[in-house]
Amino acid sequence: MLALVELIVVGFVFLSVIYVGLSMYSRRVRRGKLRHKWQNGPRVVDMDSFVRRGLAKYDRSIRRKLILGVYIIPVCVVILIIYLTNFS
Question: Could you report the per-residue pLDDT of 28-59, keeping only the tens digit for each?
Fold first, then answer.
C-alpha cells in the first residue's frame, strides 16, 4: 500500500513538472506568434495590449485545456496496464 502512495505522489510531482514546463512553452510560443502577427499586420493598437488580449483569448481556448491531457493520459495508461496485468 505504501508503494502505491509513493507511486501516486512521485507521479503527480513528475506530471506537474511536465505540465508547468509544457504550459510555459506553449504560452511563450503563442506570445511570439502574436508579436509576429502584430508586426506584419495593421498596427491599430500598441503591441502590449494586442499581445495581452491575444493571451487572454488563448487562456480560454481549447488548446490550453488540452494540455491537461498530461495528467489524464498517463493515469489511464497505468490503470489499463494494472488491469491487464491482474485480470487478463
Answer: 999 999 999 999 988 889 999 999 999 999 99
Asked if residue 16 lies in contact with residue 68, where contact means CB atoms within 8 angstroms, the answer is no
Cell of 82: 494494472
3-state secondary structure of 54: helix
Q: What percent of the chain has pLDDT over 70?
A: 100
Which one, of 22, 52, 56, 23, lies nearest residue 35 by Cα?
52
Give the per-residue pLDDT at 60. Answer: 93
The four Cα atoms 69, 75, 80, 83 give a dihedral, to 10 degrees, of: -160
User: Residue holding cell 491487464?
Assistant: 84
